[in-house]
Amino acid sequence: MKRLLHIATTTAVALVCAVSLATAEDLREQALEVFRPLPSTIPAVKDNRITTEKIELGKALFFDPRLSASGVFSCNSCHNLATGGDDNLETSIGHGWQRGPRNAPTVLNAVLNEAQFWDGRAEDLKAQAKGPVQASVEMANTPDQVVATLKSMPLYVAWFEAAFPDEDDPVTFDNMAKAIEAFEATLITPAPFDAYLNGDDAALTDLEKRGLALFMDKGCAACHSGVNVGGHGYYPFGLIEKPGADILPENDRGRFEVTKTVDDSYVFRASPLRNIAVTAPYFHSGRVWDLGVAVAIMGTAQLGEELDDEEVEAIVAFLGSLTGTMPAIAYPVLPPETATTPRPRAELQ
Amino acid sequence: MKRLLHIATTTAVALVCAVSLATAEDLREQALEVFRPLPSTIPAVKDNRITTEKIELGKALFFDPRLSASGVFSCNSCHNLATGGDDNLETSIGHGWQRGPRNAPTVLNAVLNEAQFWDGRAEDLKAQAKGPVQASVEMANTPDQVVATLKSMPLYVAWFEAAFPDEDDPVTFDNMAKAIEAFEATLITPAPFDAYLNGDDAALTDLEKRGLALFMDKGCAACHSGVNVGGHGYYPFGLIEKPGADILPENDRGRFEVTKTVDDSYVFRASPLRNIAVTAPYFHSGRVWDLGVAVAIMGTAQLGEELDDEEVEAIVAFLGSLTGTMPAIAYPVLPPETATTPRPRAELQ
After folding, report:
1. Where in the cell is it found (chains A, B) (predicted)?
2. At what angle do helices A173-184 and A154-163 cross, to 10 degrees?
3. CA B181, CA B125: separation in Å to the nearest integer?
4. pLDDT of B302-328, one tens digit each?
């Protein structure tokens, strides 16, 4: 029996190798019809010309906890650039130790998503950035307080003037969001999969290539496609078979909250899968910690397909090839407060 | 009247200039008897040889929120290197939105303090680092959980092996603390005052020099001396005149909690004053936001001296010359979690 198993395994491995080697060019061509490699330069964004001054200002704002009412949370608290651009929590903890409603998505490569948030309710990152700053369970601040805070620090005023040189009153809530978007546009993480798409066969292992082939053949790539392997298009979670309420809580109806259309019940944006291996836990509910389990759930829920262990393993290996290299980030030194800086307010509103 | 005032001011300014120019060498010599400039190399620490590997590991640990039970707080949360090495809060907010009992001191140059914490209850930074990780109102974790967390990530294990190459079982709570201490030893911030002590007359303005002279003449330097302009020696807060309970809360008896000696009631370590201008609010209670007000309170409480506005202004100017340059810090990329990494626990114990 053991011997038989061994032969079977060897044959399977040989078969896989033969397949992946024989179809090396085909596989890449097929992949290039579905995916795109990351750009080699900072992506341009709509209505927001990206300059060095804007990026540097945005970086300071991204790391500044004084954008929150309590002075405790910065953008980086939940979108931590040290841990894959998210916080590794089921759902984030915010103002007053309140829980956010959904798992914090990674900020890495988010500039390339077609819309932001799990329900796509923000068109782009400059619209997104204004949300958490004001959300009562996150940073719990107000635009007026944020502007008062920023205007109280002469160094911030000078940085806004440099970033928005043509404006009479550059320290605004909108410009805060634009600067943060400019910084976030630099958070592009080229991965082995990009090297593969760009022509380097050795960038993926045979197992990763088999996972890529499965990812396309099984239908995962129907929703998780494009430059971010997801991040555009909305789909019902449980297209074929609804997962249990432990994974798909009944009280969060997804895009329905945005469109108020019954058809959009439990519809969510297809998650972008870059860096997915380092951004557990998974799904909008953050209820699944194991990537293999998440892949298997997607198989049954979205494709009506029971993936076997070997298929799951290969797909997980492919997803690992989407883990990219972080850009170098010099931790900023922020402007010091002054006598007129509003004081932190930790109380619940 | 206006004219008279003008003449008086001009005369005062001329007098000040004359004094500071005439006694330039005397002032520096007097200062060098009381203060020392920062060292030009990373200070050696007791029982902890500092290596590049240890510093890099310590930096990762310092920024890692997974050292806390909730996964929300890192060392950097309360000792934020972007904002003077503290959190700019009256007292820190920790696990479960609980308030810490005392204002978080800056971690900058803390390696040069003779003891750590406001009551000096930790001998050095490797002893200090273990406190907040376990404090129920701060990171609320346990040594066992921390070690389990670190051991669950192969990259951390490799980093500990590199940092502690002679040890069989290098991933320990003690070694975590040693690595953090090694990183913190690099957080040295040379300031204009150091350049002045090192012989550069132009490094301080005349007002700052007048403030320095006053700081020594009035007696401030009796407690705030040495390389960190404080940070060693214990003194009763309210030596001459006890401040009100708004500034000196009655239920916090300071070093008494450590020594249980009545003489140590309301005794605190003399605060190190490097970077004091960027680390409001002030005192162990964090109740005073304005540095000038803090200086005036010190005058009456510790020296029995009503400092006038001009004296306060000069001393505040001198204290500003203690604001140093931060070392460049590349924001770390932390090891990704694995299936065996303990999950975040946000509940109150």
Report:
1. Periplasm
2. 70
3. 5
4. 999 999 999 999 999 999 999 999 999
Q: Which of A70, A328, A337 sits opposite B330 (nearest CB)?
A: A328
Phi, psi of B99 (to 5 degrees): -90, 135
pTM of the model: 0.91
Are the beta carbons of B90 and A339 separated by less than 8 Å? no
Domain ranges of chain A: 28-40+189-322, 52-185
Tell me the chain A residues in contact with residue B99 when contact means C-beta distances shorter than 8 Å.
346
Fold of domain A52-185 = Cytochrome Bc1 Complex; Chain D, domain 2 (1.10.760)
- How far apart, in whole angstroms, are the C-alpha atoms of residue A107 and residue A184? 7
What's the pLDDT tens digit per position in B66-100? Answer: 999 999 999 999 999 999 999 999 999 999 999 99
Contact B147, B173 (CB under 8 A): yes
Residue B15: pLDDT over 70: no
The complex's ipTM works out to 0.90
**φ, ψ at B322 (rounded to 5°):** -95, 0
Q: What are phi and psi of B295, to 5 degrees?
A: -65, -45
**Contact at CB, A89 and B66, closer than 8 angstroms:** no
DSSP state of A23: T
Neighboring chain A residues of B345 at a CB cutoff of 8 Å: none
Task: Domain A28-40+189-322: give its CATH superfamily.
Answer: Cytochrome c-like domain (1.10.760.10)
Does B52-185 match B28-40+189-322 at the fold level?
A: yes
Give the number of other Cβ atoms within 10 Å of residue B142's Cβ.
13
Q: Which of B81, B89, B331 lies closest to A82 in CB terms?
A: B331
Nearest CA in chain A to B62: A82
Q: Is A17 annotated as a binding residue?
A: no
Strand-pair partners of B235: B268
Provide, as residue numbers in chain B, all residues whose Cβ is less than 8 Å from the Cβ of A90.
344
Nearest to A332 among B65, B70, B82 (CB): B82
